[in-house]
Design a protein that fits this description.
Elements (H helix, E strand, L loop, with lengths): L1 E5 L6 H12 L4 E7 L4 E6 L5 H15 L9 H20 L10
Helix pairs in contact: 1-3
Length: 104
């Protein structure tokens, strides 16, 4: 089952890379795609597992990284999520396997 989640705070390839790494680590989640401009995360959920539970798990993981579902947080919680997203983005940039010392 393919699902898409509109999230906040995606700014760059580092954000996308961090999201892909964390969601890939979840059992039953695969083929993760991140549309930076649209703020959309799309992935396939294993059809053998409960899709509602899996989708909730994906949304919770995204929120814990600072990329909550659009409209799900307000005020200080939204500001906290934005701060977390900066950290996730930086980690994603540092661990981007497509960037090598030869690229620099």
């Amino acid at each position: 089952m393919t699902v898409s989640v509109a999230v906040e705070n995606i700014k760059c390839g580092g954000c996308a890379n961090g999201i892909k790494q964390k969601l890939t680590a979840l059992q039953g989640v695969q083929n993760i795609e991140v549309d930076i401009e649209a703020g959309l995360v799309t992935c396939e959920l294993d059809s053998q597992l409960n899709s509602d539970e899996m989708l909730s798990l994906v949304k919770a993981k995204l929120a814990s990284m600072g990329y909550p579902e659009v409209g799900s947080l307000e005020g200080l919680k939204a500001a906290g999520a934005k701060a977390k997203s900066y950290v996730s983005c930086a980690v994603g940039k540092m661990t981007d396997s497509s960037s090598t010392s030869e690229d620099k």
